[in-house]
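Troubleshooting entry. The earlier prediction with benzoyl coenzyme A gave an output that would not parse, so I re-checked the input for stray whitespace and re-submitted. Clean input:
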Amino acid sequence: MKENNIEELERQFQEKIDNDIKIEPRDWMPDAYRDTLIRQISQHAHSEIVGMLPEGNWITRAPNLRRKAVLLAKVQDEAGHGLYLYSAAETLGADREETIDDLHSGKAKYSSIFNYPTLSWADMGAIGWLVDGAAIMNQVPLCRCSYGPYARAMVRVCKEESFHQRQGFEIMTTLANGTPEQKAMAQDALNRFWWPALMMFGPNDAESKHTEQSMRWKIKRQTNDELRQQFVDITVPQAEMIGLTIPDADLKFNTETGHYEFGEINWDEFWQVVKGNGPCNKDRVDARRKAKENGMWVREAAAAYAEKRANRNKEKRA
Ligand code: BYC
């Protein structure tokens, strides 16, 4: 295509975005917009699926039947989110198997938060409250993302995340009001998950290589730092309400700005985890790889059966 034609298509594309008209799968879009979405959506899908592992670890050890049923439902929801998201990536021409292979080879990322271990039952509370809380903060703006299928998937995902956040906060509230040992367990979980939850929003804006362009394309509607600040502002009073202490000596409320100021995130730790050197990276990827290998015979049997049926139907029609 001639260069001026491309320029005109790009101009029309940006005009649609500026007027908040959704981009749909068959619409023309710049290659870089498609690639950015495939990267973000497939990594988001991987995060949902890998995110099942730390909580799945506690299903058999939930303290009672109600807790077990709720946790099971939550973990199943995460599988559903992963499936919507892989489908959304497919509408852009991504091959699901290839994106999953990229996860297994370490080429594709997934959220840093899932590379931390879940050591006690209180971690189920901390994950629901903080991790799903951070996920909602990040995903509500994605419901207004310029790409239609992603935005629509996020509407349903956010409704479910909000139930997840509440179940986590309920676990934390119960533990914080329980015996001294239970309260200590809740505090320990908060201590371990607070900083990794802040890291979920990604690098500071000045270090974020994709934010500026993604904001122009309205894939991202708020920056990493804006969302992180909103999360801190909402979550600190919740911790106070249940009598737990945020593990940050520098945390203080600024009455002039109306925001909490917080300490420096350990970015070295963040990048180590993102690069694959976190406490559980190897276990997480190994578990996903094993799941694929162990399920291979089921997929092969289903494919063979589908082929057999198709051949039988062809013979009948002949
Ligand atoms: N962990 O330029 P930046 C969930 C990477 S799951 C790992 O700011 P961007 C849930 C980033 O990918 C939560 N990597 O990037 C499930 C980029 O590397 P690449 C997942 C991170 O894309 C189960 C590089 O750093 N949510 O909700 O503009 C149970 C530079 O970053 C992280 C989503 O995926 C990180 N934390 O912004 C409970 C939401 N942060 O790709 C809960 C959708 C950054 O160039 N995604 N990186 O190799 C997003 O909103 C954006 O992709 C991010 C990063 C805000 C995460």
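This one parsed fine. The longest helix spans residues 281-317.
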